[in-house]
Amino acid sequence: MSGSPTAYLLWSILACLFFCFLIFHLWNYDRFQCLKWSQSGRQPGTFKRFMSYTYIATLTFLMIFSVGFTFIKFKEGYVIISEGNIYPKPIELFSPSHKKWMLPLLFVFSAAWACEIVTHWEELTFWLFLLHQGPKMRRWFDSWEFRVWLLGTVVAGLGMPLTTLISRHQLDMCQAWIFLVGSSASTATTLLFLYVLVRFPQFIRRVKEDGGEPSIVLRLVMFYQLNFARVLFRFLFSVPLFILALDGVQGNHYINQDVFWPDFLIVMGGIGCFVSSFITLLIFFPRSLTQELGYTTALLPPPMVNKSQLTVPDVSPKHAPLTVVRSASTHPSELSQGEEDMTPEYEHVDPIHITHTHSYDGHPRIRRQAWEQAQNDEAPPADGQYLGAPYMFDRHSRCLVRPHSDGLAIGLHPYVRTFRSPIDICDLEEDDHSPAR
User: Which spans are transmembrane here (predicted)?
Assistant: First the structure.
């Protein structure tokens, strides 16, 4: 296996930058609370922590390998092999002081790739578990998808270190075999993930028809788009390294003896690896700026709507969402116990049983504001105000106010600033023309 020090330098830079972003993201997500082991002793919490630690271990091991390997590569430099061509010095020609560090670094790299495969395999099986949910509720830990993930975890956790151990006598070939086995497993997992991408739009439609909250549906749409991009970058990660490794383990090394192609494939593999890991971070630990800024949406149960005031003609229930204002969560990462049972890893995905009436802090705060929107009844905003909306922006008071002649409050914008306390809500319900706080 070849590869210049400059190509691995890119891996080091990407690994260090991404590790810094990981710390920044987790701090803003929940102040590192997601890294604490579950104190309740419940199995879903333990599984979440295990997957979080596996993902973070992948990035940590990749950073250690990239920085260490790059440092040694630059120290050893290049060598003239034939016809005046300059190539990076092979591992077998390294000095003894540097060569003794290569096998530990390769073990670290194999452990990183094993954790990467475990993470990818868990994502695949978990999304299959959600897609295969039927009318009868299934538990993740009793499903066949979980048993398949458990089997794949054991194979990956033992297979990658054993590959390094078996081929340790020739370090150049050892690196080639690690690339070959790891890229083969990653490519196969990514190919299977295409099935999830094909089925996912139908899954989102089913959640909407079952009455899923808008925040749940929006998050599923975001997951679908992120997964689509992540699959592309995973192919960019695994396919170039597979080509490079396949050329390294067979007799004639057409690609590895070239000056351009080894560096190009290594650079492409590094970019695909860290970009896909970045997208995984957004899926594993999704931040909600809407909730962090104090905005939220909810669904008003049908019994609480005053139907005598509704004058919009004949609207299907699934096309007429009812929204209310409720207090924002203390932090976007807080979950109810039911959500944790249903989703061992992805925070706000519950396609079957979704609660509608309570805020995330456990206290229902519901305002008597409802809206219905008829099919194909879209109107462009005029003068900074949504047509038919009960609130508009007052430039003098710099807040949302309700006009005197609004009639029925239909068309309420889904992102309305939440109220500070229940007292404000009571005051506003007594005086419909009070400005929003």
Answer: 6-29, 50-72, 101-121, 146-164, 176-198, 228-246, 266-285
Looking up tokens 């351009």, which residue turns up? 260
The beta strands (E) that lie in 59-211 are given as 78-80, 86-88
Pair type for strands 323-324 and 298-299:
antiparallel
Question: DSSP of 303-370, one letter per residue?
Answer: GGS-GGG-------GGGS--EE--PPPS-TT---HHHHHH-SSSTT--SS----SS-TTS-----S--
Task: Give strand pairing partners of 236.
Answer: none
Q: Using the structure block, give the residue that is written with the tokens 């690609």.
A: 255
Task: Output the pLDDT for position 396.
Answer: 52
Q: What angle (nearest 5°) sits at the alpha carbon of residue 31, between those of residues 27 and 34?
A: 100
Q: Where are the domains of the chain?
A: 5-287, 289-437
Predicted confidence (pLDDT) at residue 349 exceeds the cutoff of 80: no
Composition of the chain by helix, strand, coil, percent to 5: 60, 5, 35
Collapse the DSSP code of 197 into the 3-class scheme (helix H, G, I; strand E, B; otherwise coil) and give the result.
helix
Q: Could you identify the residue written with the tokens 């929107």?
A: 373
Q: Which fold has domain 5-287?
A: Rhopdopsin 7-helix transmembrane proteins (1.20.1070)
pLDDT at residue 21 tops 70: yes
Q: What is the model's pTM?
A: 0.68
Residue 294 to residue 436: CA distance in whole angstroms: 14
Pairing of β 295-296 and β 298-299: unpaired
Contact between 323 and 414 (Cβ < 8 Å):
yes
| Mean pLDDT on 280-304 | 72
